[in-house]
Design goal:
The protein is of the alpha+beta class. The chain is built from 4 helices and 10 strands, in the order βααβββββββαββα. A hairpin with a 6-residue loop joins β6 and β7. The termini are close together.
């Protein structure tokens, strides 16, 4: 089982305005530097390699399996928004699209979403690696504002933890080497994040 990023988030989970307000910075001299720290804080917690094992802002991934499991498929990187497609290689090795009417998507269960075959089970696949490809959209859903706010539904504790991390990076720049963030996650940030942490179980 593996996973690959198809479409990255359109925005960062913390805006430059939010970060500067937290840092009490009212000038533009450090905007580029603060933007780097926002990216570093997000990379630390978001996606398949992040501390949380979650997707924060809306993003598209593909889960790749060698075959369908016996029953349901657990979708990593919660929260699950939707399933875009389920493709598989049939017995002849030809790619097929599994009919959406033949499976049920559970994007309500917490923390993980699930995909369950409706009645007849999953189809047989070609005996080869990567024979099943499930493309899905994950992350906290945007609001219905106009324009939609892509970050306002992220839990406040996660955003607070990221702001603390950004503040630490900004305040203690001697721990930041060019091209490499060496600062550890602040203790308070880790405690705020732990209730939301899940295990990805993916390569």
């Amino acid at each position: 089982m593996a996973i690959r990023l198809i479409a990255a988030p359109a925005v960062e989970p913390i805006s430059l305005v939010e970060a500067k307000a937290h840092l009490r910075v009212d000038h533009t001299d450090d905007d580029a530097l603060i933007a780097i720290y926002i990216q570093a804080a997000r990379a630390y917690v978001d996606g398949k390699d992040g501390f949380l094992g979650r997707a924060l802002v809306t993003q598209t991934w593909e889960l790749v399996l060698d075959e369908f499991p016996t029953d349901e498929v657990r979708i990593p990187l919660p929260p699950l928004q939707s399933i875009e497609s389920i493709k598989y290689d049939d017995g002849a090795g030809d790619e097929q699209i599994f009919d959406p009417a033949s499976y049920f998507v559970d994007n309500v269960s917490d923390p993980y979403g699930w995909v369950v075959p409706v009645t007849s089970g999953w189809p047989s696949t070609f005996d080869a690696i990567n024979a099943v490809r499930i493309r899905f959209v994950a992350g906290y859903s945007p609001t219905t504002d106009s324009p939609p706010n892509l970050t306002s539904n992220i839990p406040a504790s996660i955003k607070a933890a990221m702001l603390l991390h950004i503040g630490s990076l900004y305040s203690y720049r001697e721990n930041v080497v060019v091209g490499l963030i060496t600062s550890k996650l602040p203790f308070a940030s880790e405690q705020l994040l732990r209730p939301y942490r899940v295990q990805t179980g993916i390569a």
